[in-house]
Amino acid sequence: MIDASNLVKHYGKTTAVDDLSFVVKPGIVTGFLGPNGSGKSTTMRMMIGLDYPDKGTVTIDGRAYDQLRWPLREVGALLEAKAIHPGRSARNHLLALAASNKIARARVDEVLELVGLSAVAGKRAGGFSLGMGQRLGIAAALLGDPGVLLFDEPVNGLDPEGIQWVRELLRRLATQGRTVFVSSHLMSEMALTADHVIVIGRGKLLEDADIGTMIARAGTSVTVRSPDAATLADAITAAGGIVLTEPDGALSVTNLDAAAIGELAATSGAVLHELSPQRASLEEAFMSLTKDDVEFGGAR
Amino acid sequence: MSGQGPVEAVTSEWIKLRSVRSTLYTLAVTVFLCVGIGALISFGRGSHASKTEGGFIFDPTRVSLQGFFIAEISIGVIGVLIISSEYATGSIRATLAATPNRLSVLAAKTVVLFAATLVVGQFCSFLSFFVGQAILAGQGASSATLSTPGALRGVLLAGLSLALLAVFAMGIGTMLRHTAGAVTVYVAILLVSFLILAALPTDWQHTVSKFLPEVLTESMRSATQSGGPFSAFSALTSTLVLAAYAVAAFVGGAVLLVRRDA
Amino acid sequence: MSLLPAITSEWIKFRTLRSTRYALLATVVLSIGLGALVCYAQRHAWSTETYPEHQAFDPTATALSGFFFAEIAIGVIGVLIMSSEYSSGSIRSTLGATPVRLVVLCAKAVVLFLATFVVAEVCSFGSFFVGQAILSGVTTTATLRTPGALEAVVLGGLSLSILALLALGLATMLRHTAGSITVYVALTFVLFLIVLALPSSWGIHVFKYLPEILTGSMRSTRAANASGAQYGALYSPLVSTLILSSYAVASLIAGGLLLVRRDA
Questions:
Q1: Parallel, antiparallel, or unpaired: how do β-strands A2-11 and A55-60 relate?
Q2: CA–CA separation, B53 vs C157, rounded Å?
Q3: C163-189 tens-digit pLDDT
Q4: What is d(CA C99, CA C259) in angstroms, rounded to the nearest whole number?
Q5: What is the pTM of this model?
Q6: Most exposed: A39, B166, B185, C206, by fewest CB within 10 Å?
């Protein structure tokens, strides 16, 4: 369990993290969401003692990170892909980390196998692609078989197969009862992996809810196509749904779920060509939640 | 359609040089230390003025420019970094993608580095000179003006010596592509060679000394010939020899840059 | 405490970088080679030199002339062991694995000191024996039994390890390779040249405290008159060792304070 309470961090005049409190529970994947520059990385750096909070504390199972006797056996962290000397091989990098926490050498080959880097373990890390670097970072995080795992944007630079692999890994680690804390700036990514999300913007907590609540609160929309659109629209409106007609004639319905709309279609005799709940609304919910808090937004 | 020319490459390198804060800090510290140490040495020598301390002629121009010892190191580091930092950060790939003709890249870097360090070098040397002479004169010691024979030449060549050393260092940086290695080699050639000189027997010293960069720059910033303990070329010949070092390092770097994978 | 595992970890890091191995190899080859070159020159010039020059000749210090180069190379190694962690970002892995930062600095200092000590003694004894072999039969020569010679050879090597620690402290403060090397070179070599340019009546107060003079005294059998009478008596090799060590300790303490206080 990770417990952050009233974290504040300034860099010069910029407030990176502003009175942030939350708890990350074991056994589930907790997503840490926010636009770029919202303070996610800073918060994670404070969790493992790289940056000192100006105010507040963060503890791991009740203790500050620097009080852990063998930190790598309790917490594994993937902070940035590039946390290795380019002249050192992947295996030697992991061997050095293992030695510092008295982790058996055999474990190094185990994690290299696990992340699929065994074949290049002896090569200089300077020649690694972004994806390979990311896999090595994940190997380092798993090295001590820790109960708490922090991953900062783990799918960055990975190919589709790698992304799938990371998702499954995160789920598996959570199922094993570990605390899994994953940051991302993509809601869609979190929708696929996280059980719970913590959303921040400009260093402030915006949302701390499980993914189901988040989806419910977002108010899922349903896209409906029907040759009898006008009839169906009236029936939906009568039942309390809100209907918007798209330029191509499709109906975008909110405030009523797909099952209810299907039943209405049956009773009113309207033919249905499409009836699909829209995930995009989750992304929109995230966007609307953070739109005032985007640090590096494009011109609009 | 007009292709990418040298102007674009030079502009690009100029933007890169001036937009790195550490370079600007380094240049500012260079000027400060160079002038400050020159002033300190002028003050010390002025207060103990004797025409021939240590058996050598008292050359007020050279005395005021002694802060160049430190400037030579920091300017060399800037010269190394202008290329080695591109390898350290990986930005060399973006640079070579933008300007695939590698010689153009190196030439553009050389132009920008030489021009920038020449300006800073002249600023250091004129400022050191005026501050130093004011201090010497204030203590009633013998001092120089720009119209003193050899003084203007000494001041101008002192500034030039920094620009030549910067290009020399850049050549080493291009050959080695590694900041620490290149700085080590640069310092070894500049200073270690000078220190080892003192351990050599006298007749060897006479043969070797005039080719050492440190003796060359000292000769360049002197108003009078043979002001130092080691035999040296004239100021103009010293300039040519130092320029030859810079050209040799540049050519060595260029050959390797073109041949190797980036 | 977890110092021993941290030391093991730092040792793995130290020996697994090709650049460090090259730098150490270059240190050995060039310091012995340059010392040999100076000895060769002295052998040739011996017959043309004067009696006072013969009297002042220190075959031990002459054989160790290549140490001027070794001093910079070893300093660069001392800088890199810390600054490369910052330039590569691996400091995050290192501090993540060992969050008590002083343990990291201590472990690095121990590994650096021991590794450079072994290499430096190889340089020192190697330079001494090669140098004496070249000088023999022409100039005065020394053996390890010559008064002060063994001390000079051992302390000459030790001086390099102490300088490496000084450099490590500087890099811990500055966290930047080029900047740290520049400051190191300024302290060791440039300061020396600047003091030489000052009037000797000023220089006399600081001369014997200069790192370059302290190391010179450590590797000399006759420190007292090594650099000419105008700067007065220098410190003995043992006192010089203590003063140089105090610089290294001060540098490490300052580095340690900043390391603990700052964000990584």
A1: antiparallel
A2: 36
A3: 999 999 999 999 999 999 999 999 999
A4: 11
A5: 0.88
A6: C206
Q: Is C196 helix (H, G, I), strand (E, B) or coil?
A: helix
Is A68 an 8 Å CB contact of chain C? yes
Strands (E), chain C: none
ipTM, two decimals, is 0.87
Q: Do C178 and B200 touch (CB under 8 A)?
A: no
CA distance C120 to C128: 12
Structure tokens at C90: 């691996």
Number of other residues whose CB lies within 10 A of the CB of residue B149: 10
Query: By the 8 A CB rule, do A181 and A26 touch?
Result: no
Whether C185 contacts chain B with CB within 8 A: yes
Tens of pLDDT, residue by residue over A144-155, are 999 999 999 998
- CB-based contact A171:A147 (threshold 8 Å): no
* Contact predicate C65/C32, CB 8 Å: no
Q: Which residues of C touch A66 (CB under 8 A)?
A: 99-100
Chain B contact for C80, CB < 8 A? yes
Task: Name the CA dihedral angle for C182, C187, C192, C198, rounded to a multiple of 10 degrees.
Answer: 100
Candidates A8, A63, A69, A85: best to mutate against C (most CBs of C within 10 A) is A85
- Spatial distance between the Cα atoms of A100 and C3, rounded to a whole number of angstroms: 9
Place of tokens 């430190």: B70
Q: Is C199 on the interface with B (CB under 8 A)?
A: yes
Using an 8 Å CB-CB cutoff, list chain A residues near C93: 83-84, 93, 97, 140
Contacts of A51 in chain C (CB under 8 A): 263-264
Q: Which residues of B touch C44 (CB under 8 A)?
A: 201, 204
What is the token pair recorded at C142?
């020394």
CB-nearest partner of C193 from B22, B69, B184? B69
Backbone angles phi, psi at A247, to 5 degrees: -55, -30
